[in-house]
Amino acid sequence: MAIIIDGKQIAKDLNAQTQQRVAALKEQGAVPGLAVIIVGDDPASAIYVRNKHRKAVKLGIKSVVRELPATISQAELLAIVNEYNHDDSIHGILVQSPLPVGLDEQAVVAAIDPKKDVDGFHPLNVGRLFANLPGHYPVSCTPRGIMTMLASLNEHLRGKQAVVVGRSMIVGRPMAAMLLNADMTVTVAHVHTKHLDEITRTADVLVVATGVTHLIKGNDIKRGAIVIDVGMDRDENGKLTGDVDFDAAVDRAGAITPVPGGVGPMTIATLMQQTVDLCEWSEQLGSN
Question: Pick the residue with more confidence: 77 or 234?
């Protein structure tokens, strides 16, 4: 039976560390600030933003939620982003995805000051990650949270095989870069990959982020592998489940994340961690 990687507990520990860092910053006269911009009335986005706001407030982070109508123009949205770029009390800026039809999401992300890009999606920061450049810069929160989970297992990753199933800019691609930067040998696959099961069975670390319910079966997993399931899907009964068939995988994997309670809590915890990072790295504190 696999070790169940408890994302809730790891996130709780990370949040406690973040709260301590916030308290230390406040003693220096600095308060980490996070601005979240939400456009339109997408119900899922509203839930995500509310959860982020509550967590930030609980940890002592200044949280600003800017709610904008779906009718806002591209120019008006860019102007608001620029407003926060020049607001010294805001260290992290996040524009909730997806944006309504007619708005250019890539242009909006590119308009965020790279030093305030708390999601790690700005092309400059993505390039830094892929180039494995030294120094301080934000990276995509879900993959960074997964790296924290892997570190909690005290496993030596160097030289081992990693397979990432999924190629999005939010998870798959930055995840592959982080694993490669950890000296793993990385294969990136996706739902169109031929003989996917043969590839996934080579993985010492298997990360699955496709949004396809139970794409990965038990026999698709190398015995003893670490399995990270990023999926948040609904089965035919409406039950929350993942991209990995957990019941079949748990008998083959060495360690595995559950859904829910695995990767999900780590994403918001990492977002808060990175907000504090951006505050600590900011020019106001003389650390750049």
Answer: 77
Q: Both tokens of residue 37?
A: 């911009």
Q: Rounded distance, CA 259 to CA 40, Å? A: 28
Neighbours of 157 (CB within 10 A): 18
The whole-number average pLDDT for the span 163-170 is: 97
Q: What is the pLDDT of residues 49-69, one digit of tens each?
A: 999 999 999 999 999 999 999
Whether 174 and 121 have beta carbons less than 8 Å apart is answered as no
Query: Residue 198: is it exposed, middle or buried by C-beta count within 10 angstroms (0-12/13-18/19+)?
Result: exposed
Residue 244 DSSP code = B
Nearest to 32 by CA among 3, 1, 55, 6: 55
Beta-bridge partner residues of 185: 161
Could you identify the residue written with the tokens 């002592």?
A: 60
Supply the DSSP string of 264-277, one letter for each residue.
Answer: HHHHHHHHHHHHHH
91-to-31, 35, 107, 138 alpha-carbon distances in Å = 9, 8, 20, 11
**H/E segment holding residue 174:** helix 172-181
DSSP secondary structure code for residue 67 in this structure: E
Task: Report the distance separating Cα 61 and Cα 57, nearest Å.
Answer: 5
Provide CB contacts within 8 A for 187, sequence distance 6+: 161, 162, 163, 164, 199, 202, 203
pTM for this prediction: 0.96
The stretches of 28-171 forming alpha helices (DSSP H) are: 43-59, 74-85, 105-111, 123-131, 141-152
Residue-wise pLDDT for 188-202, tens only, equals 999 999 999 999 999
The reported pLDDT for the residue numbered 277 is: 98
Residue 286 has pLDDT above 80, yes or no: no
Helical (H) or strand (E) element with 247: helix 246-249
Active site residues: 52, 96, 119
Q: 284 pLDDT band (50/70/90 cuts)?
A: low
